[in-house]
# Entry
Amino acid sequence: MDKITKNQFSAMLLITDAFSLFCFRGQISITTLMGFLCGIAIQFIMTLPLIKLYDTGGNIENSGKLIQIIYFIYLLLWGGVLFSMLWQASDVIYIPYENSNGIWGKLLIAGMIAIVCLYASSTGIKAVSRSAVIAVGAGIVSLLVVVISALFNSDWNNIQNTKTTDSFLTEISRGFFISGGLGSFVVFLGFTKGNYMKNTIYYFSGKIILTVAVLLSSILVAGGIMKITEFPVVTAAQLSQPFPVQRIDSLFLIIFAVFSVFSIGVQSLAAAEMLKKIIPKFRYLRTTSVLAVMIGSAFLFSGENKGFIYIVAIGIILFILPCFMLLKRSIAK
Amino acid sequence: MQNYKELTIIPDLKINIRKIKEISGNSSDVMINEFITGDIKCALICCEGMLSTATITELILEPIVNIEKQKDSHELFHYIQNFMLMSTDRPVATEYDTLFRLIHSGFAVLVADGMNKALAFGVQGYAVRSISEPSSEGNIMGSHEGFVEVVRTNMSLIRRRIKSPELVMELFTKGDKSRTDLCLCYMKDRVPPELLKKIHDSLDNIKLESILSTGYIRPFVENGNFELFSSTGTTERPDVLCSKLIEGRIGLLIDGVPFSIVIPKLFCESFQTLDDYAFKPYYATFIRWIKYLGFLISILLPAVYTAIVIYHPELLNSTMLMLLVEAEQQAPLSILTESLFVLLMYEIIREAGIRLPKAVGGAVSIVSGLIIGDAAVDSGLISTPLLTITALSVISGFVVPELNDTMVILRIAFLISGGIFGLFGISILACAVLVNICSTEDYGFPYTAPLSPFKTAGMDDTAIRAGFPEMQSRNFTVEEYHE
# Structure
């Protein structure tokens, strides 16, 4: 089996998290940031049964078709959510032919991304994970430029002034919105080399740093206009210009495009991997059909934050199913 | 006629000579000299132009005709083999297949009446190009010797630099018709045994009729997937090959080709030159980063320029924007068409310059560079900024000549992608290219190592060029990158 390092594993998942953050809609305040961090802590605790399952030699491969189908459906639907996020966020990021051609423009963009994802998936997990590390490296450099320039344009009073009407619990549930990639976490954790617990901690540490960097810079830059901003992270990137006579917001478009490809690619890779376990004989059009269903399911999502549904879905795939598998193994022994 | 490869030499000189003439089709360059020595009828067979007349006269002909009377041909061969050291390379042939291979390789072959084998003497002396400076890998501080077309000379160039018994050179023949000599070189204490075994297996699969360049062999030692960048390298420099061998890689020399194949090759190695190790580390690091930048500029500059001018003018400051708007307003073609036209014209001119005789090639450069370029700008057919951008892109590509073929294709692909879909298109294509590079892997060695998979130790000769004291302690071999 192809094994991946903790860097590669984290890179693949952090790209999905970063892309979800870029597409995040609604107001952001310091309460949101705290809620997100608390949500991440809860997610980490929820992963413990899964780590225990892998540590004791269990895996999804031996978990039965029903559980595999649940994971597969989850991965497909989350792929659809990612496509839906892409379409919505691309309204505020200029992509040629996308806006002017309505549904066909959207399908053209989705098709282009799907072709690259199809190619990426065909090369296998090793190639995707290696390229994800380089993409994350390039993303970090670009993000640093945006964050540093955001510091020059920041208003520190925004931390106090920016408030949301939502409660802390609601913010935690919204935090789960950026954690849909945990489905691929479940699939790919079994591919990692070394200690599963250390790999998980490594990934969640990266996720905390990413969340704090992106949300804090968004609050500092776009806090003043948060009420009229639909995509606060995108707006913050557009507002934070390091040079007075030079705009750099297209730099964000590059990161956005690259991260969209990799996040959808990782999701389709995980879904195809699951489909391989469910129907091993279905080989040739496996990834193509996965991507086609993902694009189709994107039409199901309006993009509104369905915090409760995300909590339930992530709870099932991250906590309840691994607990069930652990229990089944204990009874079998 | 029965396939001569299956025939053996028989103890009858007349029949053997007739057979040789028959097999060679009385070819004019196969010379058969019949004579009697030691009271035995013999024939010395050689190929005209393949051996040194002085050597054969002095070492073979003079001693051989002065042999005293022998009882029979067995005695004669025993005497020659044990009491006369006519040359250092003295193989014995029992089949016609071997006999012809030796004759065509510049050996003088002695057949005698009553003997079912032939003695061969290595007296090769064909016209060869002398060792000269490599044409494709320029160097300031290092050696100025490059490989030549003769595999044995190339072997000596390597041996002169690595005087260690650990250096192994396996000479063998491939190609049904060409019978090309190949030489597999490696350091037996450094090369990963698994890599060596797999290369041997790959070479065993070669069933070509002829091998006339490195391109004939490379597909057999690469993994066969679609790879934009080649996972095997070539070098024209013996010193570079030696450094690769010491790192545990395998070199493959081909007779008739002044290049060696290096297996495996990594992406970062395309940016390393021998001069990097002659200069101070800080300067070598600077030059290396210039090369990385040059590579990116070469591929992306025309595409980014086109994308920015057409779709993302907000990236430009007002002065630059006005300058470009003014220049592009006068050009009759769209920027994408214009860029494609200039790039394709450059490739046509470059190809013409390479293929034409040198004297005419120079004229082509003058006509294209000065006359066409100047006239195109003056007439308003092409804008000056675009021509400048294209020239910068092309010149930047020259800093990494090894990747030029890939860069040409990528430059055009990115240009089309950026021209149609702007920076989004460039980003999407960049993802596909990145995945392709990362999927390139031969024999378990990822092409993108040490960047991804990340190896901190490998950064001292990738991100920077560390000093030799630091690198000496590391004792690097390529096996560190094996996955």
User: Anything to note?
Assistant: The radius of gyration of chain A is 19 Å. Chain A touches chain B at residues 5, 7-8, 94-98, 109, 112-113, 116, 119-120, 123-124, 126-128, 130-131, 133-135, 245-250, 253-254, 257-258, 261-262, 265 (CB under 8 Å). The mean pLDDT of chain A is 85. The CA atoms of residues 227 and 255 of chain A lie 25 Å apart.
